[in-house]
């Protein structure tokens, strides 16, 4: 048995080496770097330098506030929308179901730069279709890129557009695993469709919804593309800067790797903490 | 309690007709079993009674009221599903009370009904457990309990014991029979297992390919089947069918020659129209209706192939010409396999069918 294990590990060695060099070591290394002052040459060990700065840095708290705001508003809205989309996709009344499934999933496979460019055009102040539509129904134009609230809304709309369909497909798989006869039993029990949804469908979908929520929380904590490409590097004036963008700015523009590592570990820690709280809140009663 | 009447009930899925005009009268308090092979339309028929499938033609009446367009919940029925259909996220108690709670039934009445169902099914100890913490038999009890709390006029069972092991199936069969006796309500039960049908039913409805083949009391179907299908389906092991030709017909009887048994002949008195001489017929003999050589009117030699010893009785699978026969033998435990012996058929314990499978009486 020991010999067989040794053979197995020999086969695994190439992968384990790559995993150790490109995954394990960077994780350990960045943690160690977060305790070093990296704007001096050579770098020196200063355990409180980056972490101390983090606690008093208004830019960090601005990015944290923006990230949490997006998390608190966008994730529930997107998951709710994904549930509605999944229920519609699952309806026997829907024709051309495959086409809709593809259409809902398509945003995920669209290139990030392309979709960001299209969003910028659509929400442009003077030429965008969104403002034209708003005008068309008698509403004033919105300057999506110059004001913080519309810019944040734009980020949330964009992220929701991109990921709602993806989550809907996952939830659809969950919906299709609920046996039909459970609903038939409820129908015989004179339980209305609405009550069936809230008392049967939603509780039975809970594990899938929690899974989607955890994925979305992790994704939102790392949010980078949309504020970088759509609202031009977290604009206006840092109004849409997220933790991911702050990390990028500190690490790859200011080359302050120590502080960027501290931000990265804060992001990971927050994602784990929020996920654990959510798992605890949605745990099954004993 | 209520009678159930099906009149010319037809079911089509698109252009495909799966139930072809079923006519069935079920009396108040009767236990009727729909039995037939897979795909014969028995579950579809039950689901139409429940209102879970639309009726393409004909009428279904429950308690004298036509329910074709009545919602399932308003038909006064309760259904027990093959897969139990319990709500997995609810406790047993919540499963039992869910329908009543959702409809605003007074709390005291809901508690009374749940308690009564739990007592009847002896599941009081399980009330706080969830379905995944229950065994198959316990789940089935809860599913039946959920039907009981509705206090329906008619219970519908859709192959409720199919997912249980053999021992539990026998136990639950007894429970369901006890329940019927205790509640005295009309019950319609679907199964493909003829043993369940024989042991539970007041009357059995035998279905084949969407047609009602015969309706009758279990022993009536066993002793006096209307056709070859019913004769073969009811009874375990199934009836033996021996190919024969009519060689003489007259004076209220026919003489048939068994094609695969070296000209063995049997004279059988009939009370109806006689088949013509030369007609191809089939002689049906149940495994327990083979007698010792010389005891009947027609002896046929057979060679034992395999014997199944069930203790009280043995079944010998025997080669006889090009036909395989199943023969019940009390003494078979002493017989070695590959043994040659002779069995005898009595005219009065055999049935005759024509080429189409219809009974010749």
UniProtKB/TrEMBL annotation, chain A:
The membrane topology of this protein is: Multi-pass membrane protein
Q: Which organism is it from?
A: Mesorhizobium tamadayense
Q: Does the keyword Cytoplasm apply?
A: no
GO cellular component terms, semicolon-separated: plasma membrane
Q: Name one Pfam family in it.
A: BPD_transp_1
PANTHER family in alphabetical order: ABC TRANSPORTER PERMEASE PROTEIN, INNER MEMBRANE ABC TRANSPORTER PERMEASE PROTEIN YCJO
Could you list the residue ranges that cross the membrane? 12-35, 68-90, 102-124, 144-164, 204-224, 257-281
Q: Which GO terms describe its biological process?
A: transmembrane transport
Q: Which InterPro entries match?
A: ABC_transporter_permease (IPR051393), MetI-like (IPR000515), MetI-like_sf (IPR035906)
Q: What is its main location?
A: membrane
Gene3D superfamilies in the record, alphabetically? MetI-like (1.10.3720.10)
Q: What is this protein called?
A: Sugar ABC transporter permease
| Location in the cell | Cell membrane
Chain ranges of the ABC transmembrane type-1 domain: 64-278
From TrEMBL, chain B:
NCBIfam families, per the entry: PRK11650.1
Q: What is this protein called?
A: sn-glycerol-3-phosphate ABC transporter ATP-binding protein UgpC
Stated family:
Belongs to the ABC transporter superfamily.
The UniProt entry, under PROSITE patterns, shows: ABC_TRANSPORTER_1, ABC_TRANSPORTER_2
What the entry lists under InterPro entries is as follows:
AAA+_ATPase (IPR003593), ABC_transporter-like_ATP-bd (IPR003439), ABC_transporter-like_CS (IPR017871), ABC_transpr_MalK-like (IPR015855), ABC_transpr_MalK/UgpC-like (IPR047641), Mo/tungstate-bd_C_term_dom (IPR008995), NA-bd_OB-fold (IPR012340), OB_MalK-like (IPR040582)
What kind of membrane protein is this, topologically?
Peripheral membrane protein
Originating species = Mesorhizobium tamadayense
Q: What are the ABC transporter domain coordinates in residue numbering?
A: 4-234
Entry annotated with the keyword rRNA-binding: no
UniProt-listed Pfam families: ABC_tran, OB_MalK
GO cellular component assignments: ATP-binding cassette (ABC) transporter complex, substrate-binding subunit-containing; maltose transport complex
Q: Which UniProt keywords apply?
A: ATP-binding, Cell inner membrane, Cell membrane, Membrane, Nucleotide-binding, Transport
Recorded GO molecular functions are: ABC-type maltose transporter activity; ATP binding; ATP hydrolysis activity
Q: Does the keyword Zinc-finger apply?
A: no
The listed locations are: Cell inner membrane
